[in-house]
Amino acid sequence: MSRRWHEPDTNPTYWEPLIREAEMRGKRLLGHLHEVVAEWERQVPGSAVIMDAWRVPLPGQRSRPGPGLRYQNPIERLDERIGVVVSDCDLQHILSHPKLDALILRLEMVLTELREWAEIEAERRGEKLRLVEDRGITPDVERLLTLCHFPIQDHPLEMQAYEVAATPFQRMDVLRRFIISRTWRYTGAFPWIAFTPNGVIRITTVASERSTREDAETMLRHWEELNPDTPIRVYRTMLADWTRLPEGLQEVYATMGFAESAGIEGLINDRIEGRWAYLFGGLPPERIDSVVRHILGPLMRPESKGLLDTLMSYLEHDQSIARTAEAMYVHPNTVLYRIRRVENLLGIDLRRTDNLTQVFLAVKLYQLFFH
């Protein structure tokens, strides 16, 4: 994965005034957004919620999304979708009235400025991550991370990486804006979002393993609802604390690169662990195909599907006949019989470490590239 870039100045003294100035500008822009939203509420009657193009409610509104707000009223200017007003009545006749043109223009301008400001902040954080990759965590790099409000603490962190899984770089800018909007929601300090050469990374404090997984699944589901024709891939990994950031980045890049070569989409954690990406990441697809067919060939025939499924379950359950039988709802003798048939077909003995290792790795590759 190529990541060419110009190394920035790493002197914190150089960056401190620039970062402070950027933060003040972000606060001013959020203030302007609150003013525009307040003006909208004065001019648009009834119960309504103004959202951006990613269906994120804009801040400072009295109304909240609910079942009673069933009308979707797009806000457009020059055929470009700016946002949507969700309301309890049809507002198109009001939104198309000339008297709202100036307000729609103000809304477009402030949202555009906020988007551009946020993208610069994410680019700046991306530079810091590249410094971590190249130099590790030196005192200067730590200070730069602190200036950018990186969560430096002795608590677990989660890293989520997002990439477009279609044509390289196609609609990547759309994905980045989606992640920014859905994460930031125009409230408070800018979250820790960093642009990477192929996508975007979010780093957050961990509430619980379950909540962070649900967060990634929710983000993925919302993307699929809004962009059904553009698949993405998501990978999440946990850091014991912030000092594990260099290792976390290595794992993310290796796993995302492997997922790209394997054509894996969606939540990658459901298909692969980071350690397997390290092991298999350098193998070209044609070599992987050759290895799998050489070791598992007879089991890849349609009539051998039951045997292959049994072998995969057997390995997944640590070569336990009883647990495999329970998982497959069959008698233990059935599992034992099938495993013996697998050994005969492949000409191996799974009690031998070298045979078991070869088959285990081949099955892992099969599950990633063929299953």
From TrEMBL:
Protein name: PucR family transcriptional regulator
Signal peptide: none
Lineage top rank: taxon: Bacteria
Pfam family, one: HTH_30
Chain segments annotated as coiled-coil in the UniProt record: none
Residue intervals of the PucR C-terminal helix-turn-helix domain: 307-364
